[in-house]
Amino acid sequence: MTEPMLSRLQHLMTVREEVESLGELPRSPGTDWPAADWVDEGTHLSLFLDVPGVEPERLEMQDDGETLTLAGERPELPGNLIYQERRSGPFARTLNFPEPVVPGSGQAQLSAGVLRVRFEKLHPTIDAVVSSER
């Protein structure tokens, strides 16, 4: 390969690495687990949290209408652990509600390692239908 071609390839590799890094967000240890998604369901907000391996009796939730705090514990694996990627031990995460909810309205359901908590919205979303009559 010629020198100009190598230089262009190196430049392309650098650009590729920069583009790939755009999707990465800085993370602080312990603040991004469990992973969470919010879904607007019109009259309710649902929060989905990944909590595989956590028993329901090891989960606690508190909400004040503005924030939700989830705490729990994933038990350590028995035996001599030689390599670990999955988190274990106690955890806590506080999330801001994306919209105001009725305090204490959360209804939780745990299924297949996913915790769903459904909250009644203080101001339900109303889908407006616009008619085009002329």
Strand content: 25-35%
Mean pLDDT: 81
Task: Name the CATH architecture of the domain at 34-120.
Answer: Sandwich
The biggest sheet, with number of strands, parallel, antiparallel or mixed sense and barrel status, is: 4 strands, antiparallel
Just give the CATH class of the domain at 34-120: Mainly Beta
The protein's oligomeric status is: single chain
The best one-word shape is: flat
Distance between the termini: 68 Å
Order the strands across the largest sheet as they lie in space: 1-2-7-6
InterPro entries: A-crystallin/Hsp20_dom, HSP20-like_chaperone
Protein name: Hsp20/alpha crystallin family protein
Family: Belongs to the small heat shock protein (HSP20) family.
Pfam families: HSP20
Report on the architecture of this protein:
15% of the residues lie in helices and 33% in strands. The protein is built from one helix and seven strands; from the N terminus they run αβββββββ. The chain has one helix spanning 3-22; strands at residues 36-40, 44-50, 60-63, 67-74, 89-96, 107-111, 114-120. The strands form two sheets. Strands 1-2-7-6 form a four-stranded antiparallel β-sheet, with no helix packed on it. The protein has a three-stranded antiparallel β-sheet with strand order 3-4-5, with no helix packed on it. The longest helix is centred in the N-terminal third of the chain and has 20 residues, at 3-22.
